[in-house]
Each structure stands twice: as C-alpha cells, then as structure tokens.
Write a structure and sequence with these properties.
59% helix; 8 strands; two-stranded antiparallel ribbon; single chain; globular; 4-stranded antiparallel sheet; alpha+beta; 263 residues
C-alpha cells in the first residue's frame, strides 16, 4: 500500500496495486488497465471500419499477432537497459510491478505489422494510419497503470500541481509526469482523429503520430526520475530526438511532393 497526495486538490489516496486475488493469485491493476486500454482502443476503432480500405476484422486479426509481440519487445527493451537489476530469468519474466518501455513495444509491433501486411498484401501505411490515433489513446489510458504502481513520476518540484509520494513516513513532492504524458497523448489522439478525416497521402497520420509523440516524450523525459540511461544520456530522449528529426524530414518531403501533385 502506497500513499499519494495532490495538495492542490486536497486529495489523499492510499493505493494498493493488487486489484483482486483469485485462488491465491494476485491480479494487478497495472495489468487490468493495460488490457482495458487495448480493448477500448480496439472497440472504438471499429467505427473506422473500411477507412483507408482497411477492414476492422483485419485489425482484430493483426492485433492477435502484434500485441503479444509488442509486449515482449517492450519488456526486452526495458531489460536490456537495466541488466544490472536482473539476476535470473524469473526476474526478467516477472512484470507485475511494471518494467516495460513503449519504444520497444512500438518497434517490435511495427516489425510484426510489416510482415503481417506483406503476407496479406496490405499496405502497412494504411494500417498504421488507421491505428495511429488509437495507439495514442491506448497510451493515454495505459499511463494510469503507472500511477497505480506509483512509478513513472518525476523529479522533485514545488509547482502547484505537484504530486506527493509518502514512503517510510517521508513525503516527496514530484512532477506527475505520468499525467503529463496521459494528457499529451490524449490531445494527440484528438488531433490525429480530426486530421485522419481528410488524409492527404498514405502515412500522413503515422508520421504525425511519431512527430507528436516524440516531441512530447522529448519534453517530458528530462522531468522523469526513472529514465533508462545509456551512460549519462536518457535513452528515450535520444530516441525521441532521432524520431522527431527523421519523421519531420519525411513529412516535409511528402507534403512538398503532395503540393506539387495538387497544383
């Protein structure tokens, strides 16, 4: 049981990461929230059936492959940059307290998606454009799993919206970075949803997702207290910078080419 406070709201929460026990097996809120975010995103995406010539049935079939591979990729990515914390295989497999990295999941998921699309002769950019807004929505919801685990919070701050974490009788006030990213990715979902109604070229929504999310993550990462590090550099910030520059370049070239076509 951990205690979290939000002074600006005069709110104090005692959080138990375990939701229920079934036959002695603990079911964690973290897992429930992650699964719920995926199911909700898939459910809401049903109304886009036929968009970009993609059927929702294809999305469901694809999810059966991509989701587990993405989770494995997210875990491997996290473990690789935290090898000192793991001494045996069980510790690597045990994810009940979190320990996954979104960029690893995205990378692994995109590789799986590419091979699925190649096998079924589907344009992967159409599929990615279909899914990109809902990926952002899933991230917005999933970040609350970090809140329940009392993780992915930030460095100390005295800003009015600070979050207090009580441990061993001491209270530390920190940036609620999980909340920053949840709000940011939800706003990104709304923007991508609107733009996707008038897509100008294949890949436009995907490129905008990576531009938006990488910028958001680049800005938030310096405030995180639990960032994965490569020597003294925050890995997610480095990856975000590369993705932002890369996809901005692609977007600029594609937009320029599209403008020439429409003239």
């Amino acid at each position: 049981m951990k205690t979290v406070t939000f002074p600006i709201l005069n709110l104090k929460l005692n959080i138990n990461p375990v939701a229920i026990k079934i036959l002695g097996i603990e079911i964690y809120w973290y897992g429930i929230i992650i699964v719920a975010s995926i199911l909700l995103a898939l459910f809401l995406s049903k109304k886009e059936n036929g968009k970009f010539n993609i059927k929702h049935e294809q999305i469901l079939n694809l999810s059966m492959l991509v989701i587990p591979i993405a989770f494995v990729g997210a875990r491997i990515y996290y473990v690789l940059f935290n090898l000192k914390e793991y001494t045996n295989l069980w510790e690597i497999l045990n994810i009940k307290d979190g320990g996954i990295a979104i960029y690893g999941g995205i990378l692994a998921g995109m590789v799986a998606l590419y091979f699925y699309c190649k096998k079924h002769k589907i344009n992967p950019l159409d599929v990615l454009d279909y899914l990109a807004p809902y990926l952002s929505l899933g991230q917005a919801i999933g970040r609350w799993g970090n809140f329940i685990n009392v993780e992915a919070y930030g460095i100390p701050t005295n800003l009015p919206w600070k979050m207090g974490i009580q441990e061993q009788g001491m209270t530390q006030y920190v940036h609620p970075t999980f909340l920053y990213e949840s709000i940011g990715t939800f706003l990104l979902f709304l923007v991508l949803q609107k733009i996707s109604k008038n897509r100008k070229f294949k890949g436009e929504i995907t490129y905008l997702y990576f531009i938006g999310y990488s910028l958001l993550r680049f800005l938030i990462e310096p405030l995180r207290a639990d960032s994965l590090l490569l020597k003294n550099y925050k890995i997610s910030q480095l990856v975000s910078a590369v993705l932002f520059v890369g996809f901005c370049t692609i977007m600029f070239k594609k937009t320029k080419k599209q403008n020439k076509i429409t003239k």
